[in-house]
Amino acid sequence: MTLSRRDLLTASALLMAQPAAAWRAAASEPAAAGGGKPIILCWNENPYGPSPAARAAASACIGASCRYPDDELKPLIEALAAREGVGTDQIVTGTGSGELLRALGMLYARDGGEIVAAQPTYAELTRYAQGCGAKLGFVPVDRELRHDLAAMRAAVSARTRAVYLCNPNNPTGTALPAADIRAFVASLPASVTTIVDEAYLDFVVGPGVASVADLTRGEHRVVVLRTFSKIHGMAGIRCGYAIARAEVAKELAAARMTTPNVFAVRAARASLGDQAFLADCRRRILASRVRITTELARLKLRYAEPQGNFVFFDTGMPLKHFTELMRARNILVGRRFAPYENWCRITIGTESEVDAFLAALPAVSGRA
């Protein structure tokens, strides 16, 4: 990969941007390497946490936590439906999008159903579906580590019930243009459901990359998943939602196991309205992402084009050895994703955490 002049100018602008007052009130940076706790850069978490409004909302509802959140869900669903431009009967909430992915895996695994997915990709749906008896059709990503839609279409058979697209993809970070996904969906049999996981969509900058939630208003069976775990910084609170045609949403709602708790519901509603914080959070993560790719390019370490809050790159050595060297510097980095035995997925932490990672990388990679 090489960086264009535009990339470098974007990085400079992002780094120079001043955070809003709300950001300064909420974002506190943990100590860098050398302190007690390790720097955690392996779980794709948003280190800046929930917005000030979300924190206040969660704190204020402690007294109401003895009550079931049923009455709280309706306002959240209404807010999400308004945001997405769909009816409330097209929104399904869950305890994180992970729960909804598992429910979808169970639905389409019944009676040995087949699910087509990329390899590697996020495994929440596929692993759960396999445990429920699904037949999995994995299709390797292409040379640029993107979903190979032509090969995935060719893998669809008469037994295929669903196709899973993680866009941007985890762990590669690559993303497909919305037009490509729309054409892919249009080519599928009417009986096949396309599941599009947009957990990292808030971090994209690639041309043409956008949500395909509008497909849920069309004739094909499409489920689009979103989460409050990433840009909203609420991974530990657990709240996510799906958008689908009313009859598909009803099927999914019946298959889920739980609904979000009152803290998640109120925090999610508050976070939706805290746009200044979310914009500043995105700006800082994108600036750090460019810093990481700039250093990878300087060290001549190959990386996939990142569109999430993480970067997937070739360490030049077995990943186990790389993680051990980083752990010795009090930095925890990503796990193995077969078949990319030398590649590491690094989460974008706070500025000081990225400083520590970038300071360690030349020595660890042997390319100082």
Number of strands: 11
Which strand order do you get reading across the main beta sheet? 2-8-7-6-5-3-4
DSSP helix fraction: 40-55%
The helix-and-strand class reads alpha/beta
- Biggest pleated-sheet summary: 7 strands, mixed
One letter per element, helices H and strands E, the order comes to HHEHHEHEHEHEHEEEHHHEHEEH
The CATH topology of the largest domain, please? Aspartate Aminotransferase, domain 2
Helix count, per DSSP? 13
**Average pLDDT level:** 92
Strand content: 5-15%
CATH class of the largest domain: Alpha Beta
Number of domains: 2
Coarse shape: globular
Uncertain regions: pLDDT < 50 for 5+ in a row? 1-34
CATH architecture of the largest domain: 3-Layer(aba) Sandwich
The CATH homologous superfamily of the largest domain is called Type I PLP-dependent aspartate aminotransferase-like (Major domain)
In angstroms, what is the radius of gyration? 20 Å
Q: Could you give the distance between the termini?
A: 19 Å
What does this structure look like?
The chain is α/β, with parallel strands linked by helices and 368 residues long. It has 2 domains: 5-49 and 275-365, Aspartate Aminotransferase, domain 1; 53-272, Aspartate Aminotransferase, domain 2 (3-Layer(aba) Sandwich), CATH 3.40.640. 40% of the residues lie in helices and 15% in strands. The strands form 3 sheets. Strands 2-8-7-6-5-3-4 form a 7-stranded mixed beta sheet, sandwiched between helices. Helix 3 (52-60) packs antiparallel against helix 10 (262-272) and helix 5 (97-109) runs parallel beside helix 6 (124-131). The longest helix has 24 residues, at 275-298. It is globular. It starts with a helix and ends with a helix. The model is unreliable at 1-34 (pLDDT under 50).
